[in-house]
């Protein structure tokens, strides 16, 4: 599942601008980590922090080697402890990074994951299998991500007023294998054949020089830099499709539901938590493009079902992903971590 290992984004965690002494000198009772790569904190610095650590993971890097994403299989290296070394004739950067983590991270940290799938990966990893882990979803600002009038949203974005619209969005989503663009293209082509008139809207990347011909118009919206435009896109669409092979959570899926937009995705990884199958969207067989198309067609052909899902999705977003709801879960965790 996912992209070939050599194409995965990697960080070695070798250098960091922030020093452990500075963190230890702060008056804070708990250190909460999120993204620490790209020169923020090194592996060694994290091991020198002398305060309780809560670490919210947004990918797999913390328990892998240098990879941010990795295959989730029974023989995955992060499950086995990166032994033996890969016999490729090249320096094994993943083993080197993992061994540094294993050597320097002696005190268990409290790990937070946004999905049950990622929590299961943590529990199954050679590095963190005995560490405490909690599942707390990513929060949303529900005053920003909220339903807009569909007709107004389409006028604002210069999208067709009377066509069924399928939305897909991810930064570099057509270039990253794990985002599933190769799986979405045949699904959209099948939708075009079986339901003429459907059009697709794509955001997060500009139109490529040689765009694919899928039998339906494709509206390339480019990069989106503000939540208001994102909310308008979700509100303008009949459904959002998330064809990812792997997601730690699936933020576009939660944002879309907060705007009352049903979501179609594969029944895999973090998206199982984001989409309530049959209530706020549909989950297709992994990674079956035909079944993904059938799920889209089922919703596009049933206005009443989409309307019911829209209302349920917004209510579910309020219940699960509001700032207040998520903050309470973190406060309980902080109290527990501070007393350990």
Topology:
Blueprint: H1 20-25, E1 31-33, H2 43-47, E2 53-56, H3 77-80, H4 93-104, E3 110-113, H5 116-123, E4 133-135, H6 150-157, E5 165-169, H7 181-194, E6 199-203, E7 218-220, H8 227-236, E8 239-242, H9 251-258, E9 263-266, H10 271-274, E10 281-284, H11 289-300, H12 303-321, H13 323-338
Parallel strand pairs: 1-2, 2-3, 3-4, 5-6, 5-8, 6-7, 8-9, 9-10
Helix pairs in contact: 6-8, 7-11, 9-12
Walk me through the structure.
The chain has 340 residues and is of the alpha/beta class. It folds into two domains: 5-137 and 324-338, no CATH class; 150-321, Rossmann fold (3-Layer(aba) Sandwich). The chain is 37% helix and 11% strand. It contains 13 helices and ten strands. It has helices at 20-25, 43-47, 77-80, 93-104, 116-123, 150-157, 181-194, 227-236, 251-258, 271-274, 289-300, 303-321, 323-338; strands at 31-33, 53-56, 110-113, 133-135, 165-169, 199-203, 218-220, 239-242, 263-266, 281-284. The chain has a six-stranded parallel sheet with strand order 7-6-5-8-9-10, with helices on both faces. A four-stranded parallel sheet has the order 1-2-3-4, with helices on both faces. Strand 9 (263-266), helix 10 (271-274) and strand 10 form a beta-alpha-beta unit. Helix 6 packs across helix 8, helix 7 crosses helix 11 and helix 9 (251-258) crosses helix 12 (303-321). The protein is globular, with a radius of gyration of 21 Å. The two termini are 38 Å apart. Mean pLDDT is 94; it is low at 1-6.
